[in-house]
Structures are given as C-alpha cells and as structure tokens.
Design goal:
By secondary structure, the protein is α+β, with helices and mostly antiparallel strands. The chain is about 35% helix and about 30% strand.
C-alpha cells in the first residue's frame, strides 16, 4: 500500500500584525513544531480522515468519493470546515481525488490547536502540496488572511513578508541576537479568532500611509538590534502604534503592569501568545509567570527554528 507524507511548520508573527494586510512589512518566524499529513490509498470509494493532536485524537471524518459527501464526523464544525477546504482544492485542481480509489489520511499536529501556531495554515500548506495547487490561493479561498503563515510553513528561517498589490512577497533575513535567552513566548490561555480580530481592526482603525511607513521602519530595525535595550525600545514603539490604531490597551498595561521587562501581543490582540523579555534570572522569571497563572511558555531558542 503506497504511503506519502508532507510536513509544514507553524509560525509566529513578530511585527506587523493587522498592518501586514494593508501592505506593511512584517517580521515572521517559522517555529519548530508543525503538522504532518500522511496518506495511504486503499480499495473503495471513501476518504477516511483521522486528525491527531498532542493529547490524542482530535477528530475523525469519513467522506464519500468523488463528491466529498460527509458520511461520518465526530465533530460537525471541523468536518464542515475540512469539507470546505477539500471542495475548494478540487475547484483549483478538478482532478483532485477523482481517480476512483479510496484514501486514508492522518494529520498529526505537534502543538495544541488552541495556541494559534498555525493549525489551519499548516493543514492548507500540506493539502496544497498533496493536490499540487498554490497554497496562497487555497488559503485565500478558504480562511483568508495575509498569507505570511503559508510562507512560513515551507521555510526554515525568518522572513520579512508583505503584500504587493495583493501578491505575497517575502525575503529571507537573519536574526543574530545574542540575548535570545531573555526572550520568551507566553500563552495567555485564550485562542484568538483571526477572522474576528481582523474584522475588529477594519471596523475601528483608519490606517494612514505614515502608519505603514512607521511599521516598515520598526520591522527593519528589529533585524539590527544589538542589545536587549534596543529590542525593548522597538517593542514599545510597535505596541504604542498598534494600541493607537486598534484603540486597545497594551497587554503590558492590562496583564503585566508589574513586570520589569516588556510584553508584546502576537497575532490577534487579546489572546494567543505574547512575547516577553526578562530582566531577572530564569528561575525567578518563570516563577513569576506561574504565579500570574501562565504555566505554558517557551524560551526563544526552544521554539524558533
């Protein structure tokens, strides 16, 4: 029985959240955990789908082929979302899963889907490889967004990412901080909906050319930080700009007002992960996080590729 497998990396957006949709340049980083997609062919006319996450089975679904009719699903919402992706994949490649043979698919996610590390983008990237279609176009047809996460899925180093008249563009960059041991990524315990966050941004924010220009400058300066002080000053500048545009308080103010380092929202403000720097020792800082109720965190070098 033939078996094929693909892999896609998760992601973090360090700068440029929201504004990347308006053409600003953003700093994005692939992360070590990602998602596998493995398939085997079998006799019959069914597509069997098993999705695994770190703590075990996520969901299962069975589709009749070739029309993708759902015959079984352990999670109606996830089954319908997957059906939507498969049908749009077929729209891009009319021959996708039309060869009169059944398929068994298993996806293995290496991080909790609540983390916002890219459970959807890694799936889209893998399905696009399987079907030989453009992953950016498939994402546009399904989940939308800027596409930076799709770019990260197949890369192993940081990028500057932007949209040029809607077309995804990126350049490989090097991050050579000697203070990465003082940078952490901390989970706030609440997954933030990208769709809702983007909707909130577009309803409340009026972005001017000078805002895009300022974000571009900030993003570029992040590449040349030599000290933790320079890094933190840029983070504050970034947070002040986004706080003004979003009309929301900074996460430093709302959750970490007693922290001596800095805290920066990542992705949709209000949930997912935040970037934090420490000025105390590792043990003291990690104890501080746990006392605040944040027990899930990663050091920079443990997460970033």
């Amino acid at each position: 029985m033939k078996s094929r497998s693909w892999y896609a990396h998760g992601k973090l957006l360090i700068t440029g959240e929201y504004l990347v949709l308006e053409g600003a340049k953003a700093l994005a980083m692939p992360i070590k955990p990602g998602q596998y997609l493995t398939l085997k062919q079998h006799d019959g006319d069914k597509l069997f789908w098993n999705a695994i996450k770190p703590d075990g089975l996520w969901f299962q679904a069975v589709f009749d082929l070739p029309d993708f009719k759902v015959s079984k699903s352990t999670d109606k919402r996830l089954g319908e979302r997957l059906l939507f992706i498969l049908r749009n994949t077929r729209q891009m490649n009319p021959g996708f899963l039309r060869d009169n043979s059944g398929v068994e698919v298993e996806t293995t996610l290496e991080f909790d889907p609540e983390y916002g590390f890219g459970s959807s983008s890694t799936l889209i990237a893998n399905i696009a490889k399987w079907a030989n279609v453009d992953p950016f176009e498939l994402q546009k047809l399904t989940f939308g967004g800027s596409g930076y996460d799709i770019a990260c899925a197949s890369l192993k180093d940081p990028i500057i990412y932007w949209l040029d008249k809607g077309k995804p563009m990126f350049e490989h960059v090097s991050i050579d901080y000697d203070f990465t041991d003082r940078i952490y990524f901390v989970y706030l315990g609440k997954k933030q909906s990208s769709v809702e966050s983007i909707g909130h941004f577009r309803q409340r924010s009026k972005v001017l050319k000078r805002d895009i220009s300022e974000m571009n400058d900030i993003t570029r300066e992040f590449l040349f930080c030599k000290t933790i002080d320079e890094f933190e000053k840029l983070v504050v500048q970034h947070e002040v700009l986004m706080s003004r545009l979003l009309k929301m308080k900074r996460v430093q103010t709302t959750r970490f007002p007693d922290h001596k380092g800095i805290a920066k929202s990542l992705g949709g403000w209000g949930g997912d992960f935040v970037l934090m720097t420490r000025h105390s020792g590792k043990r003291d800082f990690e104890s501080y996080l746990r006392k605040k109720g944040y027990s899930i965190f990663y050091r920079f070098d443990d997460l970033i590729l």
